[in-house]
């Protein structure tokens, strides 16, 4: 079960954005020769694979060859857009975004002058539009991003009407349908108002159809990418980490020579209690020329090592905050550096790192906002609660239980610490498959913490729903998912409610 707390490097909604970006770019074209052609030539194919490996300069070089040899081919525009997106999404440089943004309309204008009878005519427009919608989220251009998502959705829906068996279209539309289906009910009216509808069941069914097609047609270009997309959906929304891990582990993913592949694989490993495997991958990820710089992998490695309580975890987190010029996960990284200092007994260093947490980076994403709240308002965290939390999230359940099993609520000074203690025991027993003890401590957490602003009770309700769902007790599962939706913590609310909504959809 997907039971990592949201201290994981990728919060749910953002996690989906971060982890599926590679998958939006793993879409391409069959060979199609016509006026205004969409041709998957050898140059385009090579550029495509180079861009997915973050060998962006080499990809540009291959596209230059193609444009010289075949100037009427429109597919290089899509690959060029992949490259721009990777650059913007990874670097988080607003000036760079502003400079590259003009490429969007230039590319779309050229594609609109292409062959309208190709299934890639609308599809490439939708993909490019989605790239820029996701890029805008980095810079809080949410309204424009929402309009672009709607535009892309409409293009894909129109294309589905014209070409219902076009699998590349079904892959992306399936993902959108699934995500739309997990939006909480209080936001559903917005989706209906703008003409976007979908369910989790619909989206997963469409993705499974594409996967089945890829197995029957091994030459289908997008089979592995669709498998990975479906695996990430199961991980973050579908409450099925075992399936997610199996799918990714069995997919044709080259973690040795592809930083994006390493990111995806390590992300799934960290979220499914396979932290040692994630560290192994992240320590061997290719760096330097010819690959585009990907500082976030240092953050992931530092976090994974902190889960294991490694003494060198701070080196990688410090490298991230020293080198990354963007704005996200900076506050979160400083918070984790502070935890590191606390775990190793340096309270003064903890306070210095929390000062950096307050003053550096931005509080846009949930993990950064949570880190900022702790740095600004929170008292010194309890050493044992932090230690047990990290060990549990890393998959070291026996060690986590050893930290807390002989303690009681009387060992903690504040109500928040006492509620968190109950919650942590529930989480550990959940991971150890002791359902009876897990539900016992989750219910105590809900009872003591439901009226507070902390996320413990809300997530305890969600996890209790997960446990009942696993036992096919859908009535009880639905009750606890609804309980989760009735609670409004200041921390991680959107992600928890999205998961609860997905749970209700599954047990209807």
Number of helices: 27
In one word, what is the shape? globular
How large a portion of the residues is in β-strands, by DSSP E?
Answer: under 5%
CATH superfamily of the domain at 385-506: Tetratricopeptide repeat domain
CATH class of the domain at 385-506: Mainly Alpha
What is the name of the CATH topology of the domain at 385-506? Answer: Serine Threonine Protein Phosphatase 5, Tetratricopeptide repeat
Q: Residue ranges: pLDDT <50 for 5 or more in a row?
A: 6-34
Strand segment tally: 0
What is the rounded Rg?
23 Å
Largest beta sheet, briefly?
A: none
The helicity comes to 55-70%
Q: What's the SSE pattern?
A: HHHHHHHHHHHHHHHHHHHHHHHHHHH
- Structural class determined from secondary elements: mainly alpha
Please give the alpha-carbon distance between the first and last residues: 19 Å
What is the architecture of the domain at 385-506 at the second tier of CATH? Alpha Horseshoe
């Amino acid at each position: 079960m997907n039971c990592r707390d949201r201290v994981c490097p990728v919060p749910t909604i953002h996690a989906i954005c971060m982890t599926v970006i590679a998958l939006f770019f793993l879409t391409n074209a069959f060979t199609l020769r016509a006026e205004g052609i969409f041709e998957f030539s050898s140059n385009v194919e090579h550029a495509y694979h180079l861009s997915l490996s973050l060998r962006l300069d080499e990809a540009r070089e291959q596209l230059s060859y193609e444009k010289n040899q075949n100037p009427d081919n429109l597919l290089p525009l899509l690959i060029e857009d992949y490259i721009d997106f990777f650059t913007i999404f990874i670097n988080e440089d607003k000036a760079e975004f502003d400079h590259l943004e003009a490429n969007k309309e230039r590319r779309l204008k050229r594609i609109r002058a292409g062959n309208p009878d190709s299934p890639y005519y609308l599809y490439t427009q939708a993909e490019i539009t989605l790239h820029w919608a996701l890029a805008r989220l980095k810079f809080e251009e949410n309204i424009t991003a929402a309009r672009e998502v709607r535009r892309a959705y409409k293009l894909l829906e129109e294309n589905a009407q014209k070409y219902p068996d076009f699998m590349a279209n079904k892959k992306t539309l399936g993902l959108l349908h699934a995500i739309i289906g997990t939006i909480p009910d209080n936001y559903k009216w917005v989706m209906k108002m703008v003409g976007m509808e979908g369910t989790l069941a619909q989206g997963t069914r469409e993705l499974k159809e594409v996967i089945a097609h890829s197995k029957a047609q091994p030459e289908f270009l997008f089979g592995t990418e669709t498998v990975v997309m479906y695996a990430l959906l199961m991980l973050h929304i579908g409450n099925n980490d075992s399936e997610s891990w199996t799918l990714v582990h069995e997919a044709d993913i080259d973690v040795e020579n592809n930083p994006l592949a390493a990111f995806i694989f390590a992300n799934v490993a960290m979220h499914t209690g396979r932290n040692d495997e994630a560290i192994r991958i992240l320590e061997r990820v290719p760096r330097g020329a010819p690959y585009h710089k990907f500082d976030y992998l240092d953050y992931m490695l530092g976090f994974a090592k902190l889960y294991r309580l490694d003494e060198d975890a701070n080196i990688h987190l410090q490298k991230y905050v020293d080198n990354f010029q963007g704005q996200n996960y900076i506050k979160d990284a400083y918070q984790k550096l502070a935890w590191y200092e606390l775990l190793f007994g340096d309270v003064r260093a903890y306070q210095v790192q929390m000062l950096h947490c307050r003053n550096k980076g931005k509080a846009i994403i949930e993990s950064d906002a949570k880190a900022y709240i702790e740095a600004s308002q929170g008292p010194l965290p309890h050493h044992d609660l932090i230690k047990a939390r990290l060990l549990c999230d890393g998959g070291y359940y026996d060690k986590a239980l050893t930290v807390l099993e002989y303690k009681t609520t009387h060992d903690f000074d504040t109500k928040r610490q006492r509620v968190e203690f109950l919650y942590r025991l529930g989480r550990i027993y959940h991971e150890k498959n002791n359902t009876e003890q897990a539900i016992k401590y989750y219910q105590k957490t809900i009872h003591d913490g439901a009226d507070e602003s902390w996320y413990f009770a809300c997530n305890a309700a969600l996890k209790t729903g997960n446990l009942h769902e696993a036992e096919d007790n859908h009535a009880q599962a639905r009750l606890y998912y609804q309980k989760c939706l009735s609670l409004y913590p200041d921390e991680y609310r959107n992600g928890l409610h999205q998961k609860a909504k997905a749970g209700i959809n599954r047990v209807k």
